[in-house]
Task: inverse folding
């Protein structure tokens, strides 16, 4: 069997580079995607495909948008603000008839127009889509669809407590409104703080000592909800921060933890955002809530 000459190395063709997509957002929350396609710039049969991560592959877990020639060796697709995506993470692909979908890499995401959005508090569901690059550099969308919604604003961290402020959408804070901290390990454990505000705005102070008596010594989160009135049957709303351009606040927003005395010994307490950008308080032994 012939062998390559001494010093010669077998070469393999490099796999084609994954196509890159740039994205720009408009002020209403619509997204325009431009896909680099020098070999397909005149193609009219390709599509931008979004698949919901963890979905079952049914119609509700896929969205196809036509990709049309847009000059300069590019194809363009538009996701209007009126098209609602179920909540979750959506991975982006380019697809053509008879070919397997190709994962798109993330280019430039221009999200300046959706930074600190302020939709009408009395309008319909709050719908947010934020494009982002995964840890492998691929393009994905994080989608939220909340009705009603409690948008977290400033957090004032003080010794022994945190002041939570925000704005309500689709519901108003009435008489007897409270913020509920629900222990994730056992949701029957609830601590409440009275809400002050003018109906759409809310503010409440959470005292860390309220959580000390049931702490068991491990990292323990308490999830924050807002119950808009004290009436029986009033539906509580999860407090989150989604009306900006940060898809993953847990990795970006960091708040100091404060010492907390508990029956099991010293602990630390502080607020943090979960992987879904929901607001929680964590009791643990670390210096920061992570």
Result:
């Amino acid at each position: 069997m012939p062998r390559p000459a001494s010093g010669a190395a077998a070469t393999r063709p490099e796999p084609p580079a994954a196509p890159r997509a740039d994205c720009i957002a408009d002020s209403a929350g619509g997204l325009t995607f431009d896909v680099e396609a020098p070999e397909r710039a005149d193609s009219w049969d390709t599509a931008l495909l979004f698949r919901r991560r963890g979905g079952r592959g049914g119609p509700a877990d896929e969205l196809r948008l036509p990709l049309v020639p847009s000059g300069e060796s590019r194809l363009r697709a538009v996701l209007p603000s009126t098209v609602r995506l179920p909540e979750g993470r959506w991975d982006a692909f380019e697809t053509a008839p008879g070919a397997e979908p190709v994962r798109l890499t993330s280019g430039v995401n221009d999200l300046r127009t959706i930074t600190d959005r302020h939709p009408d508090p009395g309008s319909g569901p709050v719908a947010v889509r934020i494009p982002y690059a995964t840890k492998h550099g691929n393009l994905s969308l994080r989608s939220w669809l909340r009705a009603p919604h409690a948008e977290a604003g400033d957090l004032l961290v003080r010794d022994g407590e945190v002041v939570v402020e925000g704005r309500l959408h689709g519901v108003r804070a009435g008489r007897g409104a409270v913020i509920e901290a629900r222990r994730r390990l056992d949701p029957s454990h609830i601590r409440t703080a009275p809400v002050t505000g003018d109906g759409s705005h809310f503010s409440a102070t959470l005292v860390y000592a309220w959580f000390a008596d049931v702490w068991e010594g491990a990292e323990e989160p308490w999830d924050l909800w807002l119950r808009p009135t004290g009436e029986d049957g009033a539906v509580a709303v999860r407090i989150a921060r989604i009306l900006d351009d940060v898809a993953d606040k847990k990795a970006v927003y960091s708040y100091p933890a404060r010492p907390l005395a508990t029956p099991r010994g010293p602990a630390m307490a502080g607020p943090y955002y979960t992987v879904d950008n929901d607001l929680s308080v964590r009791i643990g032994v670390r210096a920061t809530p992570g």
Notes: Residues 149-284 form a domain with the Immunoglobulin-like fold (CATH 2.60.40). The chain has a mean pLDDT of 89. The two ends are 60 Å apart (CA to CA).
